[in-house]
Amino acid sequence: MNFTGKTAVVTGGSRGIGRAVCLELARGGANVVLCYAGNEAAAQETVSACEALGARALAVRCDVSDAAQVKGLMDAALQAFGAIHILVNNAGITRDSLLMLMKEEDFDAVINANLKGAFLCMKAVARTMMKQRYGRIVSLSSVVGLRGNAGQMNYAASKAGVIGLTKSMAKELASRGVTANAVAPGFIDTDMTAAMPEPAKAATLDSIPMGRLGAAADVAKAVAFLASEEAGYITGQVLAVDGGMSM
Ligand code: NAP
User: Fold this and answer.
1) Whose CA is closest to atom 19 on ligand 1?
2) 193 lines ligand 1 (CB under 6 A)
3) Predicted local confidence at residue 196, as pLDDT
4) Annotated domain spans of the chain
5) For 27-44, what is each residue's pLDDT tens digit?
6) What is the pTM of this model?
């Protein structure tokens, strides 16, 4: 896919799926602005990997649940590259436990990072995208947002919420040439899933018709398609990338 002349902001681009998205967009020639929560070394490594693919890239430390920091991120992208054509809401966290054990602060932390963060980023790019009459917003939901999951009430609510944000944004901005779509990955091999206990991993693997974990690059290809010019007549959709898990 060709992203020459396009600037993309990818939240949580330092590791995992976000890193793979940055590389996929860089491979197509996009300018990439990625943000990270605290892992500067990983963020700089992603920048170097994008540059090695011939793209221009910039890493900005930004907690997406903080409106002022999100404004700083988008200002940095505009200052460096003059426009924002693509937003990928990828930053996310888990704080898993069963309802009876889930602390209120774990609920708030996940909703703030995963749902409020996506809202703040969408709000921060909306005016720019409307003015230029072009925009592609792709947000990371999850199979868990479609089906729920024991031990993940906070995460499931945040990822179902991302779908609500996406469909509403799609309706608000459709007439301005801005699309908003979500990708719902299943079980992808990243640091997030590496932290799962072995029995939970084995049970999840059993529920995947393809019988294997997905790779971050599998998700990145789908995100890149929805972020491309070619996907201009697709909006408000949720694309599962899950080896058949959500069928
Ligand atoms: P990951 O490997 O844990 O990476 C998370 C990324 O998000 C890191 O770059 C991290 O930055 C960043 N981040 C976390 N909190 C942030 C905050 N408040 N502000 C800014 N950046 C923040 O996660 P992943 O597995 O690649 O998942 C990426 C997205 O896909 C998430 O939204 C996740 O919910 C979703 N997803 C993943 C799976 C899966 O199986 N892995 C399945 C479905 C959906 P630092 O490096 O600085 O910590």
Assistant:
1) 63
2) yes
3) 85
4) 7-241
5) 999 999 999 999 999 999
6) 0.98
